[in-house]
Amino acid sequence: MWKRKKKKVTPEPEQLETRSMTLDEVRKAVHAYADDMPDGVPLSVIINHDLTLDYDLLSPYLKGKPEETFYMSRETYELFEADNRELAVELDMIQRAVDQYMEQTGELPIIESDPYRRVNFFKLERLTLIPYRPEREYYVTQEEFLVTYKKN
């Protein structure tokens, strides 16, 4: 009447080699992962809370785990090496602030008549959308109003 459940034998997880990888290799793996993701699943699932990448999810595409640490912006999905971690954090902060400013005012927080569409930190500070003024300049792109640190 009562049958015992058979214990499922779970195979040992495959130990992947840790090796040095370039930013380009990791970028290609992220793109391959994104191509294989089901519809409706955001790419942010591979980004940990500290903005590092979840190498367990990317390991099939990387064929290993990187020795280096890479960071990805949650807001713009831009990939950075370890020495640019603060840039990833700041980029997320500014992108969130720009999005909130646009929600509240219906306009872009850019410096008037600036051909590069530089973010106006004063406008963001006035609505207390940023905790500090970054030293680096940021710009808003034409497409999708994404924030970038590169002058267009």
Strand pairing plus helix content: what structural class? alpha+beta
Instruction: List the total number of helices.
Output: 4
Q: Determine the fraction of residues in helical runs and give it as a percent range.
A: 25-40%
Strand content: 5-15%
User: Over all CA atoms, what is the radius of gyration?
Assistant: 21 Å
Number of beta strands: 6
Tell me the span between the first and last alpha carbons: 73 Å
Order of helices and strands: EHHEEEHHEE
**Low-pLDDT windows of residues:** none
Mean pLDDT: 91
Overall number of structural domains = 2
The best one-word shape is elongated
Question: What's the structural blueprint in terms of helices and strands?
Answer:
Layout: E1 18-19, H1 23-36, H2 55-62, E2 65-66, E3 70-72, E4 79-81, H3 85-105, H4 121-126, E5 139-140, E6 147-148
Helix pairs in contact: 1-2
Would you write up a description of this structure?
The strands form 3 sheets. Strands 1-2 form a two-stranded parallel ribbon. It has a two-stranded antiparallel ribbon with strand order 3-4. The chain has a two-stranded antiparallel sheet with strand order 5-6. The longest helix has 21 residues, at 85-105. The chain is of the alpha+beta class and 152 residues long. Helices cover 32% and strands 9% of the residues. The mean pLDDT is 91. It folds into 2 domains: 19-72, no CATH class; 85-148, no CATH class. It has helices spanning 23-36, 55-62, 85-105, 121-126, and strands spanning 18-19, 65-66, 70-72, 79-81, 139-140, 147-148. α1 packs across α2. The radius of gyration is 21 Å and the shape is elongated. β3 (70-72) and β4 (79-81) form a beta hairpin. The chain starts with 17 loop residues before the first strand and ends with a strand. The protein has 4 helices and 6 strands.
